[in-house]
Design brief:
Number of strands: 15
Helix content: 10-25%
Number of helices: 6
Distance between the termini: 53 Å
Shape: globular
Strand content: 15-25%
Strand order of the largest sheet: 5-4-3-2-14-1-15
Structural class: alpha/beta
Largest sheet: 7 strands, mixed
Order of helices and strands: HEEHEHEHHEEEEHEEEEEEE
Length: 320
């Protein structure tokens, strides 16, 4: 057998260590601040409908001092969306509410819908990363966060809280029936409070949930919702080229960890990879922080084969 010298082993170990350090540095210092706007076109409106522009934001995980993130969020108002949807996990600190409100800026003056996630209710805590691979691990909750103050700030500006509520509204001439549930990740979802077919006069039916748990998605689909929006997954946060996301941190499969997909025969799902990270896990790899501008268009009588595996066209615009 060949003899491997001690110096060769040492050089290999040092090289591996150097690569790991470089990867951690890139993931924590560069990519987690490399914000990107993604765009997707989703055919969910009745034939003949005009398009509707929906800005989907999620998982800000805001800390008061994150000025770069706050500035990037303020610039999103220039997109002039018809509707803003926020699927939760806005906070990471007891003093983050003013930072979130100021960062959202003009978006709060536009029609908006929201539900909350676990990190609106409880501060994040240090966690063994291996627990993400165990779906039944015991959850440890941090200090309570001022979610009531955040809810008041959102609703005072006109955004609608969809937590266990059904609401109808009209946006850009489109009648929309909406409903939402509290965070399934915390087992706080009570779908029965919003169960049943939405308003039959609505031209679009939208469901909101923070965590895209199959039990909730199944109920929205069974009730006839056209589109369900969710966050929570961070797109996997750590993605290996050629393999994909390591975990989804919920019950959906890895192919749906971010972006558009179908759920059942009729319902379409969009999962945001989110804008932030836990302050205890401040890194992203091959999964940039994002907001998504969804252009909702009329569904054709017969859908073409597909522009990608799910029949949606997508693109991205980089903004730093």
């Amino acid at each position: 057998m060949p003899v491997i010298s001690t110096s060769a082993v040492r050089r290999t170990a040092l090289g591996a260590t150097g690569a790991a350090v470089a990867g951690i540095g890139y993931a924590s210092l560069i990519e987690r601040n490399a914000f990107v706007l993604r765009e997707a076109t989703m055919p969910v409106l009745p034939p003949g409908s005009s398009s509707l522009r929906v800005l989907h934001i999620s998982d800000l995980h805001m800390m008061p001092g994150q000025k770069l993130k706050q500035q990037w969020l303020r610039e999103l108002d220039r997109l002039e969306p018809d509707l803003v949807v926020n699927t939760g996990d806005n906070l990471s600190h007891q003093k983050s509410v003013p930072a979130v409100v100021q960062a959202l800026g003009g978006l709060l003056s536009r029609p908006g819908l929201f539900v909350f996630g676990s990190n609106d209710y409880f501060a994040p805590v240090p966690k063994n990363p291996m627990k993400y691979f165990k779906k039944d691990h015991r959850r440890v909750y941090g200090a309570p966060l001022p979610w009531k103050d955040l809810r008041a700030a959102f609703t005072e500006r006109g955004w609608l809280d969809l937590t266990h509520v059904r609401r109808d509204l009209e946006v850009a001439g489109v009648r929309i029936a909406t409903a939402g549930v509290d965070d399934p990740h915390l087992q706080r979802d009570r779908y029965d409070t919003v169960a049943g077919a939405p308003n039959p006069l609505a031209e679009l039916r939208i469901g909101l949930t923070h965590s895209p748990e199959p039990r909730v998605l199944d109920r929205f689909a069974a009730d006839g919702y056209d589109l369900v929006l969710a966050g929570h997954t961070h797109g996997g946060q750590l993605v290996l080229p050629g393999y994909g996301a390591l975990v989804t941190n919920c019950g959906i499969d890895k192919s749906r960890v971010k972006g558009p997909s179908k759920w059942g025969e009729h319902t379409q799902l969009h999962v945001s990879a989110g804008i932030g990270t836990s302050p205890w896990a401040p890194y992203r790899f091959c999964c940039r922080p994002e907001a998504t501008l969804l252009t909702l268009v009329a569904a054709p009588p017969k859908r073409p084969a597909a522009e990608n595996n799910h029949g949606f066209s997508t693109s991205e615009t980089v903004s730093r």
